[in-house]
Amino acid sequence: SDWLPVAQTLADWYDVPFSVTGAERIQGTLVHRFDTRQMTLEEVLQGISMVMDYKFEKQKNDEIVIKPE
User: Fold this and answer.
1) For residue 1, what are the contacts with CB-CB under 8 A and spacing of at least 6?
2) In the predicted structure, residue 1 carries a pLDDT above the cut 70
């Protein structure tokens, strides 16, 4: 899935664990044209979710799960 490298990059930048469920059902290609490292994690997740059909769920252990809507 294209989401695995995206999740790993976000995990590395923000030091937050990510996982991806249902990646085969997440359609589209994510391309960023700005330096997301200058943004908060919440700003990045909100921006991504505006252009793709998926959602983020923050777990009690602070892991963020990416899953299709």
Assistant:
1) 20, 23, 24, 26
2) no
